[in-house]
Design a protein that fits this description.
There is one protein chain. This protein has helices at residues 13-29, 54-74, 88-99, 113-119, 122-129; strands at residues 4-8, 32-40, 78-86, 103-107, 134-137. With 143 residues, it is an alpha/beta fold. Helix 3 (88-99) packs parallel to helix 5.
């Protein structure tokens, strides 16, 4: 049923919890996991990110991708990885369309508080507008 599963990740605890579900589905369906991490360039202009440089965000993204790829290969699944820069929501949808994925697996916990209120939830936007089905995984203990 699923040949290609997109796993967008920001390295958050919510994303890491969702990875377990993506791995189980990949094993069940002998599917490829597409790991996507997006350097959020929309966040760079905010006051909260003043001290953050593009280089440090890119380094963090590479670290997240490397760790996730290691986890996926350790579980014996086939993996494709990509790093992008831009609006995470838009990049996730674009990747899903161009790669022809059958399912998107995402955590529901990333940004929180005022950031989530002002910017909106990436997962929520993807759920509302993605063509393939989206499996959301809530962080254990999240209320």
């Amino acid at each position: 049923m699923y040949d290609d599963i997109l796993f967008p990740t920001d390295g958050s605890d919510g994303a890491n919890e969702a990875l377990a579900h993506a791995l189980e589905l990949a094993e069940t369906h002998d599917a490829t996991i597409h790991v996507l991490s997006v350097v959020d360039s929309t966040y760079l202009g905010s006051a909260a990110a003043e001290a953050t440089t593009i280089e440090s965000l890119q380094e963090r993204t590479e670290q997240v991708i490397d760790e996730t790829v290691d986890d996926v290969t350790d579980h014996g699944a086939t993996v494709v990885a990509e790093r992008r820069m831009g609006d995470p929501y838009g990049e996730i949808l674009d990747y899903a369309d161009t790669a022809g994925v059958d399912l998107i697996v995402m955590g529901t916990h990333g940004r929180s508080g005022l950031d989530r209120f002002l910017l909106g939830s990436v997962t929520e936007k993807v759920v509302r507008t993605a063509d393939p089905p989206v499996l959301t995984v809530r962080l254990s203990g999240d209320t």
